[in-house]
Structure prediction request, 422 residues.
Amino acid sequence: MPTMPASAGAAGLPDLLESTRRRTLELTGAVSDQELERQIDPIMSPLVWDMAHIAAYEDLWLVHRGGGKPLLRPELAALYDAFETPRAVRGEIEQLNANEAREYLAAVRARALELAAQQEVDAEIAEMVLRHELQHRETICQTLALAQLPGFDPDFRESPPPAPGGHSGLEFVEVDGGELAIGASGEQFAYDNELPRRAVRVERFEIARTPVTNASWLEFTSEGGYHERQWWSDEGWAWVTAEAITSPLYWELSDSERPLELTSCGPRALDPDRPVAHISFFEAEAFASARGARLPSEAEWEAAAQWQHGAPSDRSRANVGQISFDTAPVGAYPDGAADCGAHDLIGNLWEWTASEFDGYPGFSAHPYPEYSEVFFRKGYRVLRGGSWATDGRVASPSFRNWDLPQRRQIFSGVRLVRDVPQ
Prediction:
């Protein structure tokens, strides 16, 4: 596995650890201990479990395996192991309360900082631990969206840029075909499922300039798209009828004159210029079919996600890092547009692809099979690009997210592609 950039090496590690933890504590500190300790939804962990899991993971990898020190709380190892303690039971078992979890986080962090000061820390392990916490912050945001807590409004939240207008998610730009390399370059940190980098051939295609907007999706809903069998796959139709799905997860359409979208920070008017969010793979697939388009393959998505001067990784060029705590209007970050002219490929919302999650040819599990290999060929679909809740350190053109096709708690949207006659 490649190591992380030199700027994130041992000398800069304490600052990175502390800045990451500061935002984690700000985020969880905006929630009462009572809400931290209850299981808000059966498909999500109690937030206090996420907090203690972050500590246990850091102690295991950075301090114990990386630094050779004994575990601080060995009796907690199985309790806060994601596979030993599945989500289905995390709301029922005895575990640390909110204050104890904060103390555990602080005690492990003190050990990690002491280790970083005394010896060189393995760069790969340090980067993995940092990104693990960042990724769990996004999971916490998913839980908070499901919770709809009254008055939740973190102090660090900023308004997104205004809408540039003129986008629907149905305008297309062309991407040249040919052979290209996809996956991580091998020069910096990458997860095992991003490797090895490989050459693939992609035929010329068109990709939507932006993700599909709320306005375009509202048209689909109003014209009866959720009730038209012709647009849905067999599996998708079985799901949408069994669950009586009629709109995206957080839409409120009871008042047709004032449709609302529920957010973590309360309801707001359904903004026609923002991307449609919290849709399943099945919904994305059906919408694409209804508009004479399809979902991109992973290779096509990555072929479009090319930047001559580097992919956007901060909020000056992309809606990342939980700053706005909401989506931004599509196209609101023109400086982050890809070379092909597509906007918002990084940040705002994860984008469903047509690809099932699997290893690339030559895949080798590292540092443990449970990170990704156990999910291969199980029906999970790949999402690309990151969301507003994804840190820019994680959201890269080669990073692969995955979830089940019916899942809607994730910050997911859709971008269309169309074939071009060859």
About this structure: The two ends are 39 Å apart (CA to CA). Residues 123-147 form the longest helix (25 residues).
